[in-house]
Amino acid sequence: MHNLLGFLIKYCHWFLFAILELLCFILLFRFNSYQGSVWFTSANVVAGKVYEWDSKVISYLNLTTLNEQLTRRNIMLEQRAKILSEQINELNGGRDTLVAGLDSAAIKLIPAKVVGNSVDRRDNFITIDKGRADGIRENMGVACGMGLVGIVYLVSEHYSVVIPVLNSHSNISVAIRNRNYFGYLRWDGKASNEAYVDDIPRHAKFKKGDSVVTSGYSFVFPPGIAVGKITNIYDSADGMSYMLKIKLYTDFARLRDVCVIEDYEMSEKMQLLQSAKDSVKVMGK
Q1: Torsion-angle region of residue 82: left (phi > 0), alpha (psi -120 to 50) or beta?
Q2: CB neighbours of 283 closer than 8 A, spacing ≥ 6?
Q3: Contact present, 258 and 130 (Cβ < 8 Å)
Q4: Has residue 128 got a pLDDT over 90?
């Protein structure tokens, strides 16, 4: 207390000066219209800047949620576009099924964040922050807002490891959009934005610039998820088929938000196939 009183006595003239200055400013801006309007305008400019900064900070903090929502929405729109395209083709054949089946794909999307990634190795892996506790299982498909990412390989309670397209062991069934010719997507270990599709039949009709999507002929991905577009066409080594070079839509070097795909129809098909395999084993004994 004694030190506080000593401090106040020592600097009392500065405190008195500050109080008088404040009083002068109050009298100046309150009883003079011009000075008052200048103060009001300046205060509004400062307040506006503060609110603008506050809005930008809040918007930045909300980017994570927005990215998750956009990723989920893009994947769903890809699926709906695929279904609509198929139904338009059916309508052209005289079958009125445009509305029926719009949401027939029983798909659940589980949003996740990429917490580990590499693109410069022969066998790259991606780690995401969702695991068994979030409903993730092995062999579930993974996609992002731009397109295909990979397949879940290992799962722990709260994390999962994904084998992306940029892995020599990746082998995903894909098709040329609206052409119904399918092949297998592989990566040659070089550029992270390019891949190849093997086993496209020689009689297939397509051209550069056509889009490549998942075929739906596997138990991992539903049909219609974007993969890339054709940039070059080559003959296969044996000359019996085509090999396509495609530019991938997914930018793996900047991958942040993904969705794990749980397709209930695919799960049912997988269970049915497994039952058939078990039956064949029993019959063989």
Answers
A1: alpha
A2: none
A3: no
A4: yes
Q: What region does 16 belong to: left with phi over 0, alpha with psi -120 to 50, or beta? A: alpha
pTM: 0.64
Helix, strand, coil percentages in the chain from 3-state DSSP, rounded to 5:
40, 30, 30
The first and second tokens of residue 64, run together, are 């994570």
Q: Please name the helix (run of DSSP H) or strand (run of DSSP E) that holds residue 23, with its range, or none.
A: helix 12-31
The answer for residues whose C-beta is within 8 angstroms of residue 10's C-beta and 6 or more apart is none
CA neighbor of 266 nearest in space, from 222, 213, 228: 222
pLDDT, tens only, 140-192: 999 988 889 999 999 999 999 999 999 999 999 999 988 878 899 999 999 99
With 0-12 / 13-18 / 19 or more C-beta atoms within 10 angstroms meaning exposed / middle / buried, residue 11 is exposed
SS3 of residue 37 by DSSP:
helix
**Exposed, middle or buried, 246 (CB in 10 Å: 0-12/13-18/19+)?**
buried
- Using an 8 Å Cβ cutoff, are 172 and 214 in contact? yes
Q: Give one DSSP letter per residue of 41-81, joined into a string.
A: HHHHHHHHHHHHHHHHHHHHHTHHHHHHHHHHHHHHHHHHH
Q: 128: helix, coil or strand?
A: strand
